Amino acid sequence: MMFTVLRGLPQTALLVRAKVVLQDKKTYIYSKPPKERIGPGKSLIAMSVFALTLLAPAGWILHHIPEYRKRPRSPPDDAPTNSIM
């Protein structure tokens, strides 16, 4: 019985420590009203730029897969070469 109590003790100590750290961090958080309002137009432009930035490279690769398949394969870098060094 004593062993089971001692096994749970470190977990309890970690939870208490986490609670203290979280309480300590909350004291530094503060907020003010925004200086400028961001309208729906600016939000739409920002989200469009993010989407384009993420999806454009993937779209380029998917569009050019047939060209990549037609290219001859290059030999691996670790393959022995025929040249004399």
UniProtKB/TrEMBL annotation:
CDD domains: Cyt_c_Oxidase_VIII (cd00930)
One GO CC term, this protein: mitochondrial inner membrane
Domain of life according to the entry: Eukaryota
Chief location of this protein within or outside the cell: mitochondrion
InterPro entries associated with the record: Cyt_c_oxidase_su8, Cyt_c_oxidase_su8_sf
Pathway annotation from the record: Energy metabolism; oxidative phosphorylation
UniProt key word Transmembrane: yes
Subcellular location: Mitochondrion inner membrane
One Gene Ontology term from the biological process aspect of the record: mitochondrial electron transport, cytochrome c to oxygen
Gene3D superfamilies: Cytochrome c oxidase, subunit 8
Pfam families: COX8
Membrane spanning stretches: 42-63
Membrane topology label: Single-pass membrane protein
Annotated keywords: Membrane, Mitochondrion, Mitochondrion inner membrane, Transit peptide, Transmembrane, Transmembrane helix
Family: Belongs to the cytochrome c oxidase VIII family.
Protein name (record): Uncharacterized protein
Species assigned in the record: Synaphobranchus kaupii (Kaup's arrowtooth eel)
